Amino acid sequence: MQEMLNLGILKLEKSKEEKFFKDKRYKLKKDLRSYVIQDKLVFKDNFTRFFFRFLKSNEKLILKGEFDIVLNDIKLNLEHYQSFCFEQLACEYLEEQFQVLNVQSYWNKELELDVYYKDENLCFIGEVKFKHKKICKNILNQLKFKAKRLNLTPDYYILFSKNGFSEQFDKSAEKNVLLYDLNAFKKLI
What's 51's DSSP letter? Predict the structure, then answer.
């Protein structure tokens, strides 16, 4: 694994979650005793991710010539695969848009954000939805709730949607809410 990190095939996303102090004199709550804060390993490019997800895992079937089973696996799981790619592209887009590095996801025991960035000058959080329907305003409300739970005051709330946004967003012109659809990614090409 270290070799794949050194070669740039994988990248490590460090958890932003605060490590809690374990004192031997005090017993931890039951739900925290086995809880481990973990970092994420992510493939840097989507082809390699596709290869390991669909081809390497089905290598025996491919060698036996059972291509229909492999294709069926790809068809059944492609949308889930694409949704993560969409999240990664959203992070790349925001790095380009704001001229920053290390836009990534955020996770802890209670909540998860698809997009997170914070430094001394800028903070934004966001959600990325790869669904066949438009995003409603409740996603923005959930995002604001998550910010409150994290004691964050982001400069921007950012939403990415594969299929656009409901009419509710046109009526509310909040200046710190940025909405992006598939057309935004043309800038990355």
Answer: I
Q: DSSP string of 122-178?
A: -EEEEEEE--SSPBPHHHHHHHHHHHHHTT---SEEEEEETT-B-THHHH---TTEE
- Model pTM score: 0.80
Per-chain mean pLDDT for the chain: 86
Instruction: Give the neighbor-by-neighbor strand order of the sheet with 123-129.
Output: 104-107, 112-118, 123-129, 156-161, 177-180
Q: Is the distance from CB of 39 to CB of 5 less than 8 angstroms?
A: no
Distance CA 19, CA 15 (A): 10
Q: How high is the pLDDT of residue 184?
A: 85
HSE-CB for 186 with a 13 A CA cutoff: 5
